[in-house]
Amino acid sequence: QTILVLNGPNLGRLGTREPEVYGAETLADIGAQLEASAPELTIDLRQTDDEAELISWIHEAVDRRLPVVLNPAAFTHYSYALRDAAAQLKQAGVPLVEVHLSNPHTRETFRHSSVISGVATGVIAGFGAESYRLAVDWIQRSLG
Ligand code: DQA
């Protein structure tokens, strides 16, 4: 079983980007941890700074019926286009777990709302790289 682990803008900078907020691990480190913790799954980890590319990956997940772990990064807070893409996962009954490294609710006001959460199966935020691991664990268990 393949799981798409999709990451939005600036997440390719993890490791050097505000480590006190986002942790010292790089996205590659997170991917390696996920692979180690779920060896029977294929973790297809991707990152883009481009909204159109991220939307095209969600379309791919809908068409291939692949569960998605999504850190939409700043798109969380304003991308109705990404939400409309994610709504198609919900329509198709494909699991979508929204993840955040930080807990956005403890931060600036603009981070307190997510336009994605309303179409996500669930949301995990505030546990650093562990947020991803928890999301993958849940998907794995829900697949049975
Ligand atoms: C983030 C939180 C967002 O507010 C921010 O724009 C990010 C990362 C997180 O993982 O904590 O880029 O999604």
Distance between the termini: 11 Å
Extract low-pLDDT stretches: none
Helix content: 25-40%
Helix/strand class: alpha/beta
Major sheet: order of its strands? 2-1-3-4-5
Strand content: 15-25%
Oligomeric composition of the shown chains: single chain
The count of β-strands is 5
Sheet bearing the most strands, described? 5 strands, parallel
Per CATH, the architecture is: 3-Layer(aba) Sandwich
Count of domain modules: 1
Instruction: Return Rg in Å.
Output: 14 Å
Q: Averaged pLDDT, please?
A: 97
| Main CATH class | Alpha Beta
Helical region count? 5
Topology pattern, helix = H, strand = E:
EHHEHEHEEH
Q: How does the SSE layout of this entry go?
A:
Blueprint: E1 2-7, H1 19-22, H2 27-37, E2 42-47, H3 51-64, E3 68-71, H4 80-92, E4 96-100, E5 122-125, H5 130-143
Parallel strand pairs: 1-2, 1-3, 3-4, 4-5
The site of 1,3,4-trihydroxy-5-OXO-cyclohexanecarboxylic acid has 10 residues, from loops.
Question: How would you portray this structure in words?
Answer:
With 144 residues, the protein is an alpha/beta fold. The chain has a single domain (2-143), classed as Dehydroquinase, class II (Rossmann fold, 3-Layer(aba) Sandwich). The protein has 5 helices and 5 strands. It has helices spanning 19-22, 27-37, 51-64, 80-92, 130-143, and strands at residues 2-7, 42-47, 68-71, 96-100, 122-125. It has a 5-stranded parallel β-sheet with strand order 2-1-3-4-5, with helices on both faces. Helix 3 (51-64) runs parallel beside helix 4. The mean pLDDT is 97. Bound molecules: 1,3,4-trihydroxy-5-OXO-cyclohexanecarboxylic acid. The site of 1,3,4-trihydroxy-5-OXO-cyclohexanecarboxylic acid has 10 residues, from loops.
